[in-house]
Design a protein that fits this description.
The structure holds 2 protein chains of 2 kinds. By secondary structure, chain A is α/β, with parallel strands linked by helices. Chain A has helices spanning 3-12, 39-46, 49-52, 70-75, 86-94, 138-149, 165-173, 186-192, 217-222, 224-242, 247-258, 262-273, 288-300, 318-322; strands at 22-27, 55-62, 81-85, 99-107, 112-115, 129-132, 158-161, 179-182, 196-200, 209-216. Chain A has 14 helices and 10 strands. Chain B is mainly β. Classes of the chains: A alpha/beta, B mainly beta. Chain A binds chain B through residues 29-31, 33-35, 38, 41-42, 45-48, 50-51, 56-67, 78, 162-164, 166-170, 173, 186, 189-190, 253, 255-260, and chain B through 1-5, 7-8, 10-12, 14-27, 29-30, 59-64, 74-77.
Chain lengths: 326, 120
């Protein structure tokens, strides 16, 4: 699709005033509701970007849920589109799903490995309990690499699978874990409370595509206008988050959403943007090179076997283009 | 005018207790979340497996399906006093719900049974 065609479609699909809103059911995993990874959606709601697109936007949380169930929710009709981490999308697509990424929600995630205050080096983690995310996900993959870089093989530590940063932080605070993997903002807050930061996932792993909005190709073809309106709202959300004039308002929303102080929330934004670390996309654009790195990581861990698929297999950009995303 | 949706309201409500204070895992929710449980039956009192149960407030809903004996359990971020529960299954329509709220405030487990009537 040419940019001109995309622009024409975008103009034609501007929400008409007074028209009946289009309903869109967005799937969210329980663990993302209070996490930083809900930020683009929370901002879009808070700032009225979905309303502006005349979307009746609904958040649906499937129970039992979890990262590995979100594509299933597309197939059983529970949701129309969903938040999903890329390895789960890739696995389901390779198993026959027609789900594809239609926008990026988070790139290049920064995960921290935090330990009890008395653990001050990687070597001290030998034989200790480490709270991990799902072993099939990129969080676990990147932290394993970080541990390996610092001389720890998988047999050197005991893993405990806990989905969601709040659950892992809880494990650390209850001293049921000796170290855990945390995302923002809880990692920043935990560090302020005296837990030891051993390292960041980004030390061992190059930037990769973390979470996306996914839709089934069949659903997207039949509901193109709805999807384009969603992508325009998402684009507005990223533009709002990235605007330095809104930094204070975004920090307020992070604090409200995740329960951390505003100082910690502001530190999270500084981590993302000062300097620019590419954690958030500019407008929802999809970087297929970053997706290719996920495929490589999955191959390294044996999650998928060669020949490795091309990243384009898991992406459909036509709706982003129609929404005006470059 | 800004749209302050329930998604945000629910998150803000959760933020009242630090996000790091609960969290037993993705499906177990937070220790401060609201628990809904109950049974879906037909009008003769026969339990219905595989019925969809939806707990909703404004634009957020939590969805699950009943087990083989018609039971469900949902951990949600929704205040039970503000919620609406519905059930569905192909070939049936909802005929009613029975709510038994235990004393102890909004965060106490709430039992809601749902009845489905076969389509004629």
């Amino acid at each position: 699709m040419t940019r001109l065609t995309a622009a024409i479609i975008a103009l034609l699909t501007v929400a008409p005033a007074g028209a009946e809103p289009l309903t869109l059911r967005y799937g969210a995993a329980y663990s993302t509701l209070r996490s930083i990874y809900s930020l683009p959606i929370v901002i879009a709601e808070h700032e009225g970007f979905f309303l502006r697109e005349n979307l009746d936007f609904k958040i649906v949380v499937p129970i039992p849920g979890g990262s590995d169930k979100m594509i299933d929710a597309l197939h059983d009709g529970t949701v129309d589109i969903t938040h999903v981490a890329t390895p789960y999308l890739i696995r389901k697509a390779l198993a026959g799903s027609d789900a594809v990424a239609v926008a990026t929600e988070f790139n290049n995630p920064i995960y921290s490995l935090l330990a009890q205050p008395d653990i001050t080096s990687f070597a001290m983690l030998k034989g200790k309990r480490v709270g991990f995310a799902d072993p099939g996900g990129t969080i676990a993959m990147s932290i394993r690499k970080l541990l390996a870089v610092h001389g720890l093989a998988e047999a050197d530590y005991v893993t405990r699978m806990l989905e969601g940063t709040p659950a892992r932080l809880n494990c650390l605070k209850r001293a049921e874990c000796d170290a855990v993997v945390l995302g923002q903002p809880q990692d920043v807050a935990a560090r302020n409370e005296g837990f030891t930061l051993l390292g960041l996932s980004t030390e061992a792993t190059p930037a990769y595509l973390y979470t996306v909005t996914a839709a089934r190709r069949s659903w997207a073809e039949a509901h193109g206008e709805t999807l384009i309106r969603y992508l325009r709202a998402l684009r507005s959300s990223f533009q709002f988050i990235r605007d330095p004039q809104h930094r204070n308002a975004v920090a307020d929303i992070i604090a409200e959403t995740t329960g951390v102080s505003k100082v910690v929330a502001a530190n999270v934004l500084a981590l993302y943007f000062e300097p620019e670390r590419g954690v958030l996309p500019r407008e929802g654009e999809i970087d297929t090179e970053a997706l290719a790195r996920v495929i490589s990581m999955m191959a390294e861990t044996g999650a998928i076997k060669p020949p490795l698929p091309a990243p384009e297999k898991f992406v459909d950009r036509q709706y982003l283009q129609a929404a005006g995303v470059k | 005018m800004r749209a302050c949706s329930f998604a945000l309201a629910a998150l803000i409500a959760l933020a009242g207790s630090p996000a790091n204070s609960g969290g037993l895992g993705d499906d177990n929710g937070d220790g401060n979340d609201s628990i809904f449980f109950g049974t879906v039956k037909d009008t003769r009192g026969v339990a219905i497996a595989g019925a969809r149960v939806n707990v909703k407030f404004k634009n957020m809903s939590f969805v699950t399906t009943t087990d083989v004996i018609g039971n469900y359990r949902l951990s949600t971020t929704i205040d039970p006093d503000e919620s609406e529960l519905s059930c569905s299954k192909e070939g049936y329509r909802q005929s009613g719900t029975t709510r038994r709220s235990a004393p102890g405030g909004a965060k106490s487990p709430v039992e809601i049974d749902c009845t489905l009537q076969p389509d004629l």
